[in-house]
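debug: dumping io for the single-chain case to check the tokenizer round-trip. Nothing else runs in this session.
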Amino acid sequence: MSRLLLIKTGALGDVLRTTSLLPGLAERDAGLEVTWVTATGAAPLLERHPLVHRILELDPASEVQLDALAEDLGSQGFDRVLSLDDERPLCRLGTAVAARSGAALTGACLDEAGHPTYTSDAACWFGMGLLCREGLEEADRRKLANRRTHAELLAEVAGVRPDRPRLELSADELARGRELAAGLVPAGAGGPLVGLNTGAGGRWTTKAMRTDEVVRMVEELAGGDPALRFLLLGGPEERDRNADLAQRIRTQAPAAHLAEAPLDLTLRGFSALVGALDLLVTSDSLALHMGVARARRVVAFFAPTSPHEIDLFGRGEKVVSTAADAGSYRRDADNASLTGARLAAAVRRQLETLG
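debug: decoded output
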């Protein structure tokens, strides 16, 4: 039996999509035992995954926790450490565990002078980020030029074949997701249930779709198919945005069957609700990765972030900004070309595939 320590703590969407590595790792090393170190709060995304044997949560900002964990894990006889976070404390954790256990180390680490760096076999990924040895300008150039998916890049780092991410839910969790969806938007209209996750976090605000264009999209879709049902999705930070959207949609498209999902669901509760959708319209966000992991039909839109890193695995469509700064990771990237008409057309094409 081979023992692997995988360090990936954040962000939540990145933790989830990193599960794409697990099938290839298990295929390469029969009987592989995986211990995954992740951030406090991210563990629900890994629970019940059949290829994760142990989940350890920590606060990456706590040096006391990191030092204690490094000492504990260093005595547990790992054969390999796969270190996928570029923050210095986590580079230190991976380096320390590998040194104490005699494990092979791949990924982010500390050099002999104690500076964050990465092993040569991880250059395809970390060479496009903050640790790039040639500097941030070159990292940005590589990021913009990249046409490989996240799963393909991480698979090269790990030396395995790429696969898809998975988020495992119990039968009870799936049933509760379906019950919640049915209670929010009754099936009486008879049409498919379309989730609208059009907001974004605070880092890249223009990942979000403009609210007037969301309203136009719903108005156009509901006008073409009055049976469609719409469910506004988001987290606590979308409270004001979703309330405004709901009011505007009900004013401009009063015939649309619209409901608002609770904004305080747990990660697993939210993923179960996503799993109950027929189609998800989403920004480049955790909801997108949940939709992919739950094999939902997805229409995803992109402005500041790269559409090329995302693989929908043949179950969706990407709508990409046509502005010159598309995929540039600029915080103020132009998202004006993500129009309601373009998104509505993509949604209609994907709905046609539902049969």
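debug: round-trip ok. The chain has a mean pLDDT of 96.
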